[in-house]
Amino acid sequence: MDSLNNTRNNAMRDIPISTKVQDDEMDAIDVCSCGNGQKAVYYCFDPKPDCEIGQIYFCDQCKINHLSHASILLTDFKKKYINEINKSFHLIDVTFSNAQAKMDMYSNFLSQCQRGKSILEPAEKRRDPLEDIKKLEQIYEQTKRLRDYGESFFQKNKVSDLNKINMKFRDFVKIVQDFEYISEMNDQIIWDCYQPAFESDFEFDLSSLNTEEKELYYKFKIQALSSRVKKLEVMLKEHNSVKQCIAAIAVQLNIEDRIKGFGL
Question: Which ranges carry the FERM domain (predicted)?
Answer without folding.
Answer: 218-264
